[in-house]
Amino acid sequence: MSDLPHCETLLLSLEAGVLHITLNRPDSRNAMSLAMVEELRAVLAAVNDELDVRAIVLRGTGGHFCAGGDIKDMATARAQGEQAYRELNRAFGSLLEEAQRAPQVLVAVLEGAVLGGGFGLACVSDIAIARQEAQFGLPETSLGILPAQIAPFVVGRIGLTQARRLALTAARFNGAEAARLGLVHFCEASSEALERRLEETLAQIRQCAPQANAATKALLLATETENLGSLLDHAAGQFAEAVLGAEGSEGTLAFVQKRAPKWAQ
After folding, report:
1. Do 14 and 140 share a structural domain?
2. What is the tens place of the pLDDT at every residue in 208-234?
3. What is the CATH number of the domain that holds 165?
4. CA 122 to CA 40: how far, in whole Å?
5. Per-residue pLDDT tens for 87-127?
6. Does residue 176 share a domain with residue 154?
7. Pick from 184, 188, 203: nearest CA to 265
8. CA atoms of 29 and 7, how far apart (whole Å)
């Protein structure tokens, strides 16, 4: 695969088809600086066409996932005027769009602070695993601002009714409540249980064909925006291509021969 970009705010590790991305600004609880946004976007772009990368695991250092936007960046933008704020905010929205569309399975491991921008990143993950004592929240309105880029992804994740409650109260809640809301899929009581759940999840992902997973993810996301009839027409064509393609042929043969397909070995 192509080389990963050099990063100052991220730790990168590629192991057995899984790209581990660790937000690495522990002194600020991994607050999302513009540099981190740009580096995350560059890493996602670098692996976008690399189906050998089966999954992306996103987590943070220092016991926290991400505590939201970086105050220093906001202070710099204030000195530059309204357009700087607009560009700073929209860059994060672009990151969320690109992360949600990534062809790989995006797994978020959520510990400590999962606030503001960190909350948004959790909402675009395909699979979210949280520690029970993690602290989730949308604090923007308590700071006199709004969750501008995050809001559509929060609504898509947990629905308009719950999104309104959380955004308009800035309420904090733990991993158990996040699971009840459907924000996360798993809530674990210990670090050991969290790591076991992650390994189990990655093992399940490796059972699935990478091209089929990428196409299925795109199909599921398209259900939110496309007309049903045209969506089903397009999906029928994709199904026929998949059945006749390399993965479909290998999967069928492996089933008949009662063995694991090549991508699962």
Report:
1. yes
2. 999 999 999 999 999 999 999 999 999
3. 3.90.226.10
4. 14
5. 888 999 999 999 999 999 999 999 999 999 999 999 999 99
6. yes
7. 203
8. 18
